[in-house]
UniProtKB/TrEMBL annotation:
Keywords: Amino-acid biosynthesis, Aromatic amino acid biosynthesis, ATP-binding, Cytoplasm, Kinase, Magnesium, Metal-binding, Nucleotide-binding, Transferase. It comes from Catenovulum adriaticum. Its EC number is 2.7.1.71. This is Shikimate kinase. Mg(2+) binds at S18. Belongs to the shikimate kinase family. It catalyses: shikimate + ATP = 3-phosphoshikimate + ADP + H(+). ATP binds at G14, A15, G16, K17, S18, T19, R120, Q156. CDD domains: SK. The gene is aroK.
């Protein structure tokens, strides 16, 4: 049997990794995973709780381990957490184990898409626009560094973005 291939979605909060990842997996009949959801499953607690109790450092340790484990698989679509790329080990791991697709959007869209969601603890203390700008400055080069493909999600539906990824990766 031919080796199954993996697609890993990276990018900032609200870029659409979870939404587009699910859509992509459905279309390609691949298994879908989401590192944030997997952390919640393993801890039995939500992301905000993990940040509260273990701090961001504790969360990042869990995130690295979850991504390592999930990338052992073949034939999956994985939506990663927005900050997972700050780990060099995770960047190397994603590059080595599948196609890395960077979902890019504007800060304005990120603010609008994350406005009513309490699952993103980093946006709870301060002005979301400013926080997202600061994160973009430090993280965008890391997304770019490992991206095999960059796709804009600001003006297209999840379905259209998903079709574009399939076409451009030749899956
Ligand atoms: N292409 C799109 N067009 C319009 N709305 C979208 C699009 N993609 C995602 N959304 C909406 O934006 C919100 C955030 O999307 P999603 O949770 O998929 O982002 P994410 O990249 O997984 O973020 P995080 O890094 O925080 O997990 C959801 O309400 C989703 O329905
Ligand atoms: O950008 C980030 O650092 C985060 C993004 C989300 O996917 C979650 O992993 C968490 O809210 C942290
Ligand atoms: Mg997500």
């Amino acid at each position: 049997m031919a080796e199954k291939r993996n697609i890993f979605l990276i990018g900032p909060m609200g870029a659409g990794k979870s939404t587009i990842g699910r859509q992509l997996a459905n279309e390609l009949h691949l298994e879908f995973f989401d590192s944030d959801a997997e952390i919640e499953k393993r801890t039995g607690a939500d992301i905000a709780w993990v940040f509260d109790v273990e701090g961001e450092e504790g969360f990042r340790t869990r995130e690295e381990k979850v991504i390592f484990d999930l990338t052992e698989k073949q034939g999956i679509v994985l939506a990663t957490g927005g900050g997972s790329v700050i780990s060099k080990e995770t960047r190397n791991r994603l590059s080595a184990r599948g196609f890395v697709v960077y979902l890019e959007t504007t800060i304005e869209k990120q603010v609008a898409r994350t406005a009513r969601d309490k699952r993103r603890p980093l946006l709870q203390n301060g002005e979301p626009q400013e926080i997202l700008e600061n994160l973009a400055e430090s993280r965008n080069p890391l997304y770019e560094e490992i991206a095999d493909l960059v796709v804009k999600t600001d003006n297209q539906s999840a379905k259209v973005v998903s079709r574009e990824i399939i076409d451009r990766l030749g899956f």
